[in-house]
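New to this. Please check both lines:
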Amino acid sequence: MTINSQLLLMLSALGALNGFLISAYFFFTKPVNLANRFLALMLLMFSVRILKSVLFYFNPEIDKVILQVGLTACFFIGPFLFLYCASKMQQLAKQPLPWQLHIALLASTSLLIGFIYPYQDNEALWGVFYRFINYIWLLYILLSARLLMPFFKGLTAKKARNKQDIWLLSVFIGNIIIWLAYFTASYTSYIVGALSFSFILYLTGLLTFTIKSKAVEQQTKKYANKEISANEAEQKLQQLDAMMQEQQLFKNANLTLPMLAKRLGVSVPYLSQLLNDNVKSSFADYINSFRIEEAKNLLISEHRLTMELIAERCGFNSQSTFYSTFKKFTEKTPAKYRKENQ
């Protein structure tokens, strides 16, 4: 294999691998978001399709089952793009078919065709299927474009672009570019589709990171020299404390500063400044103070609970973190505190 071939293999295979990883991230990230699930499934289908292309390009004698799986995955790219766009535009419930039925019909059709006409025994027929799959993909791209018309019109009026805009735009345009790459592969090269996917994936990641960095920098500058008044700080802290007590947000082991800021209806820099200047505490210490108070109550009132269960109920990721944090706040171990208060 020449150096150029090795470079092509590395770039295209890395794109497929990163596609699998990003797909898993969007699918399992919390809180659960249906749009993210559709995006994850679309990326998964893309990654399977790209991996099949890479394997076939460098080894045309690969097992026909792999070719069938890759083309079947391609069949679902367009539908998941459409469902993702419908979900982002809040049009999912307005579609003629419920999304569950939509997917079920497509899945049953593809499985039935694959079972009756396996690639291994019907290679020429799958050549026809391949063209049909590409046109189905194009149809869903056009349907997605119709859904996104209000989004496109809104983009012309917006001066700033957030990462959600970038992802939606990149997903849609990326589909068009990769579809064109595969559709025109007979005039260019079969590997162009895989390389296009890698390029779009990396470019989207770079743009998202750049926009996010600029947004954080702008927010930091906005609040850097702006002192929160005593009355405003007192009001916000009372609201925050009440929310923490009533909703018991501290019990969420994955609670983050951005999540809490969103609940409170303020920016991340604002909340950070509020805690640092007025509570003289970091975000982690502020949250842990509620967790430790809850742990104290459980240690005294629930004698049968193990330390592991108490740690879990109070929002700690591990028992060791619970021990170290408890000792930091009370200068005692949980066991000693329980024994002294029996």
Remarks:
- The chain has two domains: 3-218, 230-340.
- The chain has 15 helices and no strands.
